[in-house]
Amino acid sequence: MITFDNVTKVYQKDWVALQDISFFIDKGEFVFVNGTTGAGKSTLLKLIYKDEEPTKGTIKVLDQNLRLLKKKNLPKLRRKIGVIFQDFKLLQDRTLEENIAFALDVTDTPARDMRKQMLEILTYLRLSHKKFSFPYQLSGGEQQKVAIARALVRDPYVLLADEPTGNLDEKSSQEIIDVLLDINYKGTTVLMATHNLKLIKKVKKRMLRIEDGKLASDQ
Amino acid sequence: MSLRIGIREGFRTITRNASLFLLSLLVTSIALFLLSLFAFVTVNLYHFLNILDEKIEIIAFLEENADYEALKSNILKINGVRDVIYVSSEQALKDLQAELQETEEVLSVFESNPLPASLRIKLLAKFRNARGLEEISGKVMLLRGIMETIYGGELVDQLKKITSVITGFDIGLLLIIIFSVVFVIFQTIKLTIFARATEIDIMKLVGASNSFIALPFTFEGIVQGILGGFIAFILTVVTKRVAVSFLSNIYFPQGYFFVGSLLCGLIFGIIGSSLALRKFLK
Description:
The complex is a heterodimer.
Chain A: E1 2-11, E2 15-25, E3 30-34, H1 41-48, E4 56-61, E5 64-65, H2 74-78, E6 81-85, H3 96-105, H4 111-124, H5 140-152, E7 158-162, H6 170-185, E8 189-194, H7 197-203, E9 206-211, E10 214-218
Helix pairs in contact in A: 3-5, 5-6
Chain B: H1 3-16, H2 18-54, E1 57-62, H3 68-76, E2 81-87, H4 89-100, E3 118-123, H5 130-141, E4 146-150, H6 153-194, H7 197-205, H8 210-246, H9 254-278
Antiparallel strand pairs in B: 1-3, 1-4, 2-3
Helix pairs in contact in B: 1-8, 2-6, 2-8, 2-9, 5-6, 6-9, 8-9
């Protein structure tokens, strides 16, 4: 599903963010990417959804060599990948429902299918009663759930989560982790970047540890 | 990609960022008004030059008892002659009296009408220069019954020189103004796009194609351009009304200005928004 083969990413001024990273993630896996702030976790996720280009090495996502992927086909790949962030990245001037529908508009989903998919995802995340609320009217945990809903509504193969619990308290963090585990249980591959070792130990899933841009361990 | 969604998103952008849109519209309107004003001045300048150009003619004075009808038809056969008008000596006197008005008594010293009959020879545009005038005048002089011809050869060439200098200057100025207008519109649209950078990021993230992302902004650019063009047109009409109270003979082809303003707004709106978006869609 995701393959990194000797991937190196060097930013400007010779700052090496990732160096010779190789790993393989199978379909349906739940994998943590762990490391301190600035270790290269976000860069690794950005490389997967091709927000960044590797300086060296090969990346394959959903059997597609990203280096060979034509620019016009990038949106199609991204529709198969869901991404969520620490800062949620929601549109503040749109309601919860509109924020989620935004992801379906992109693919020109017919109105009837859209209503069905929205209803399913809102019920699943228990957000139906707040669908007309704006993001600033929601708690951090709820906002992250909206971001998850937006990522999941198109039924992606992979869900990338970049420090999704970074801004949340323990209770909300646990709720988000439970949602991610459940999504994974239903078959979606989940890759979650976090610096929180305590949380990783509790969940007991595979962990890729990045230290100074290098893959320190894979267990 | 649905046009409906693009237009809906475009309207949403305009209504939710109304103040930014209005500011941007104001700048666009002023920029287009400058262009329209320039066109207004240019059109009138050329209109005036055209009137002068039309006045370039050869006057051929006739000998007494000359057969003007025969002369007229002969002159009309000369290459470059567009029209020939006969002015009798009585008409010439009347014209002179009308021109002199208050000093009419000057003419009373003559016992009889001293002015000869003449033919006013109008030329085709191509021949309205010193060479053309000289050539045609030479041919006219060969005809029996022609006493003398007059034409302003050097003056005509000077007029032509002035016209070509003005044309060069005008084109240069036009290019500068067009560049400035596109730049200003581009910068203001960029400002509205910057305000929505997060939205564009999210669009890309959820797999929106470049055309999907561009459509609302292009729509906004078009609306802004057309509205700006319309406001610029209204301002030009007002300027024309003011100008009319100071100057007579103002030329203002209203229909062309209306269509031109909207069209310029539309084109610059599209160019401006696509230039501004290019950076975001890399």
